[in-house]
Amino acid sequence: xxxxxxxxxxxxxxxxxxxxxxxxxxxxxxxxxxxxxxxxxxxxxxxxxxxxxxxxxxxxxxxxxxxxxxxxxxxxxxxxxxxxxxxxxxxxxxxxxxxxxxxxxxxxxxxxxxxxxxxxxxxxxxxxxxxxxxxxxxxxxxxxxxxxxxxxxxxxxxxxxxxxxxxxxxxxxxxxxxxxxxxxxxxxxxxxxxxxxxxxxxxxxxxxxxxxxxxxxxxxxxxxxxxxxxxxxxxxxxxxxxxxxxxxxxxxxxxxxxxxxxxxxxxxxxxxxxxxxxxxxxxxxxxxxxxxxxxxxxxxxxxxxxxxxxxxxxxxxxxxxxxxxxxxxxxxxxxxxxxxxxxxxxxxxxxxxxxxxxxxxxxxxxxxxxxxxxxxxxxxxxxxxxxxxxxxxxxxxxxxx
Length: 401
What we know:
Blueprint: E1 26-28, E2 55-59, E3 62-65, E4 70-75, E5 80-87, E6 92-93, E7 95-97, E8 103-109, E9 115-122, E10 127-134, E11 143-146, E12 151-153, E13 159-163, H1 170-175, E14 177-181, E15 187-193, E16 199-205, E17 214-219, E18 237-243, E19 247-252, E20 257-262, E21 265-271, E22 286-289, E23 292-300, E24 311-319, E25 326-329, E26 347-349, H2 351-360, E27 366-370, H3 391-395
Parallel strand pairs: 3-10, 12-18, 19-27, 25-26
Antiparallel strand pairs: 1-2, 2-4, 4-8, 5-6, 5-9, 7-8, 9-10, 11-13, 13-16, 14-17, 15-16, 17-18, 19-20, 20-21, 22-27, 23-24, 24-25
């Protein structure tokens, strides 16, 4: 399974309520100078006592406040110089002061179940503090990221996020997903259904990645509401990876040959026997992506809806789809290699060739399967089938297009 790639949020959840929430959170600005009595507001503004006593108002306010909205701090008179909004664990919300200096607004939203302290500093040096606490999430949504953190992948590996619960507010979630690359690669997010029915969003370039590209994803989701039935995100996530050598596996169902092409050059040709044409035992055509190298596994036909046709321990297994298509060693089919497609859907080859290919490949390498006798192309959520969609069609699957 993919690595979750989870990291500590840049805005951790506070777990301690602030005692004595400030009703309305209208607070007198107090001068930094002087020594007023404990708990008392300094009647001056830091200008010798001549100025009126400025006030701030903060939204959200009180205890049990609604999460998922930006924090705003407004100054009744004068101009704001700086505002710090921090949670109980030291996380801080970044924000900006408006052109007129009267209002500060956070760039991100308040997270659920978090106690915040607000400290506002005016241009004249006066300061004020306030606090509020957001209501805890009644349901939490989580996610799984692929590829795993600090991995090296093939040129067809998309960024892929599968959610534990439904995501109705797709645009809000997508806005929190930030992809950066070392060479300015452009791409698009697309919402699809994972093979198990869960909501999923993938990011792919228009063409395969360039070898050596470094990619980083930051999922700034803490405080985002998934929508009805999905719950809240209560942390951020991140992953990063590097794209390895450019290599493509080309399978011709007509000639029953597999070729590994690296950097545009054929490295090796291997005779294979793919799925039996004419039914569910046919192989998928189009482009599939190596999802994982699983070694020796038990393959049972009933798990893919083929009754009791087989139950075998299979070596050098390389998963291509969630529905059960692999490339692997198939010595029992040796009489058909390079001659006929007679497998139950997988791409079989000799032990020697399978061991060699297994050592050459990495997750993310594409398998381009052409020729007659396939059963069509896999859906986007059946592995990484989005490469079978035209680029313009893929772009329409973004919630922000």
